[in-house]
Amino acid sequence: MGKPIIFLKESLKPDQIEQIKAAADDYQIIEASDSTNAFHEEDIVIMLGWDKEIGPRLLKNPDSKLKWVQSISAGVDSYDLASFKEKNILLSNGSGIHTISITEHVLGILLAEGRGVLRAAVSQKERQWKDPSFDYRQLSGQNLLIVGTGKIGQQLASFAQGLKIKTYGINSSGHPSPGFLECYSQKNMNRIIKDMDIIVNILPLTDETYYLYNEEVFQSMKKGSIFVNVGRGPSVKTDDLIQALENGQIRFAALDVFEEEPLPADSPLWDMDNVLITPHISGITDGFKEKLTAIFLANLDGFIHEQQLKKNQVDLDRGY
Questions:
Q1: CDD domains this protein is in (predicted)?
Q2: Average pLDDT per run of 10 along the chain, which is 320 residues long?
Q3: Which residue of 127, 144, 221, 241 is most buried, as measured by CB atoms within 10 A?
């Protein structure tokens, strides 16, 4: 039996690896990028990031010692949560790492669209001085519905209020959340959504949120509203979204995530003038590795000394 292994699928800086070594001197640190370091994968106890080849093998291997995986993303819908539960493997996510970047991404898009910056970029290419048909708008005073009132939703609500945007939230039970004028339960979303100018999806993907945005929901929206998705692609039934965009029910959609990624080249979304496509980049942030390492080190301390995690432990039944 070899020394227990911390397997680093995510590449870290040398000083960050040294911090991990200092905190876990009984463990061997294996970097996925180092192909010269031979090891027995059954000895992996902790995995930082998810190796799509080794990970599934360990879930099927009765000799596996895997006890904890630290995901680098907030969403964990790609993990086999049932197997994690069956084998008593802890899972923690990267919630909190992406709050500022996603908030700035959403507000940047809304400002650029409303003030005609997106249209101006097209006009510049066409050497057109001004598009007289463009309807300039201000964000101040508009109703913003943030679907998902976790850390990212709260950060977005806080920043939006600085722009005098009226912020409302949707969560599982309708419980109050910081930064929101009022929150509603997911089951009551269709009732409140008709009064919203902007709808932003930040929900994780679960059985309850799969295809949450379908024809019924889009038809319940205020005609001419804006839809932004920085949550999960399969929360949206793409064909129904396209129909809502074509008939003007939704005036503009900014999409960072999709049912199928990369977005297929033959998708009608590419050619729609009222759609902005960003290739799953809203969560990219500077200082990402520092933020991830801070979460990992806090959890590593809890795992070694208390056999429990201190931050962002995922409820394997709920999926977040």
A1: PGDH_1 (cd12155)
A2: 91 96 97 92 97 97 98 94 98 96 98 96 93 91 97 97 98 96 96 97 95 97 98 98 98 98 98 97 93 97 97 96
A3: 144
Q: Which of 98, 105, 119, 232 is catalytic?
A: 232
Q: Yes or no: say if 130 and 138 are a contact pair by the CB < 8 Å rule.
A: no
The CATH number linked to 136 is 3.40.50.720
Could you tell me if residue 282 is inside a domain?
Answer: no
Are 261 and 222 members of one domain?
yes
Burial letters 102-127, b for 16+ CB under 10 A, else e: bbebbbebbebbbebebbeeeeeeee
- Does residue 126 have an active-site annotation? no
What CA–CA distance (Å, rounded) separates 274 from 260? 20
Residues 84 and 173 in one domain: no
Is residue 88 domain-shared with residue 141, that is, in the same domain?
Answer: no
112 and 260 both lie in a single domain? yes
What's the total number of domains in the chain? 2
Do the Cβ atoms of 105 and 160 come closer than 8 Å?
A: no
Identify the domain containing residue 186 by its residue range: 99-277
Mark whether 280 is an active-site residue.
yes
Taking a C-beta distance cutoff of 8 angstroms, is the pair 33, 72 a contact? no
* pTM check: above 0.90: yes
Query: What is residue 1's predicted lDDT score, i.e. its pLDDT?
Result: 61
Residue with tokens 């930040």: 202
E-strand stretches of 52-103: 68-70, 90-92
Secondary structure E strands in the chain = 5-8, 28-31, 44-48, 68-70, 90-92, 143-147, 166-171, 182-185, 198-201, 225-229, 250-255, 275-277
Q: Does residue 40 carry a catalytic annotation?
A: no
Whether 215 is covered by a domain: the verdict is: yes
